[in-house]
Write a structure and sequence with these properties.
Mean pLDDT: 96
Number of strands: 9
CATH topology: Rossmann fold
Order of helices and strands: EEEHEEHEHEHHHHHHHEHEHH
Number of domains: 1
Structural class: alpha/beta
CATH superfamily: Alpha/Beta hydrolase fold, catalytic domain
Radius of gyration: 18 Å
Length: about 300
């Protein structure tokens, strides 16, 4: 594990493959960690060792913390900027981008704000979706977002603070109801939630999303651009588990037409919210195809 201290954030990240290889950034989500990509990375490098794979720890997870004097926040433009700043630190101009959950929304924000940096994009579970509160969600999606409404209440905050790991384990179970994961897999990820800023980051992410908390002024303009939902102009592949009980398949399709570059959708029957953990070989194959198309 590596760490870099930038002016606003101390960012942890993992690297695999060749230091001068073709760069691929893998962004994890909540509640998860960089290890969510372990099997995908092994598969990718087994067939193409000439890759540089970079896995940042997203804000509030693992070793990544906002530095003293910088308020904890989790606007999607902020998450995207962290990735760009890390790429700058590594001397990487253009890169392939893969995201899951929060990592998807960060990837869409990055592709909207810095499209010249993104060579191709693969998203898992979360399609290009509403950047501002909306009320016409399907009732199944409203039901699936129960935890987001809960986090906008004092009781939800207390519950997450006092029963962090139990709450996160429950999310894993309900978001992928057919996935019979070994709880040792969750136990290996759970230390990432011990980050002292974990709860505050999660709360800000969901409270800001639903108008329950203000944004940080430093991100006001880029966040305004993200919330305008610009067309995505980089080649995009979306992987959707059809048994995803977090972001429902119908929600993931809402704004497919806003991807104006070549777009591919891969549906996975029986798979939930964590395809990279549930069927890593299939995810690696999709990523390889996306990399191949981007080079053609």
């Amino acid at each position: 594990m590596h760490q870099v201290v930038l002016d606003h954030i101390t960012l942890g990240y993992e690297t695999d493959g060749r230091h001068d290889g073709r760069p691929v950034f893998l962004l994890h989500g909540f509640p998860d960690t960089t290890a969510t990509w372990d099997s995908v990375v092994a598969d990718l490098l087994a067939q193409d060792p000439d890759l540089l794979i970079v896995r940042p720890y997203i804000r509030g997870h693992g070793p990544t913390v906002l530095n003293e004097g910088h308020p904890v926040s989790a606007e999607t433009s902020a998450l995207a900027e962290d990735v760009v700043r890390l790429a700058d630190h590594l001397g990487v101009a253009g890169f392939h981008l893969v995201g899951s959950d929060w990592g998807c929304r960060a990837a869409y924000a990055l592709a909207g704000l810095w499209p010249e940096r993104v060579l191709s994009m693969v998203t898992l579970g979360t399609g290009y979706n509403e950047a501002t509160p909306i009320t016409d969600l399907s009732m199944s999606q409203v039901s699936s977002f129960w935890y987001q409404w809960l986090f906008n209440t004092p009781h939800g905050e207390k519950l997450l603070r006092e029963r962090t790991r139990e709450f996160c384990l429950h999310l894993w179970r309900v978001w992928s109801p057919s996935w019979e994961f070994d709880e040792a897999e969750f136990a290996a990820a759970a230390p990432a939630f011990d980050n002292p800023q974990f709860v505050d980051t999660v709360l800000h992410y969901y409270r800001y999303r639903w108008d329950g908390a203000p944004g940080v002024p430093a991100y006001a303009e880029p966040q305004r651009q993200v919330e305008s939902m610009p067309d995505i102009v980089v080649p995009t592949t979306h992987i959707q588990g059809l048994e995803d009980h977090c972001t429902r398949p119908e929600t993931a399709t809402r704004f497919e037409s806003r991807v104006s570059a070549p777009y591919t959708r891969v549906d996975l029957p029986g798979i939930g919210h964590f395809p990279q953990r549930e069927v890593p070989g299939k995810v690696a194959a999709v990523i390889r195809d996306a990399l191949r198309r981007a080079q053609a």
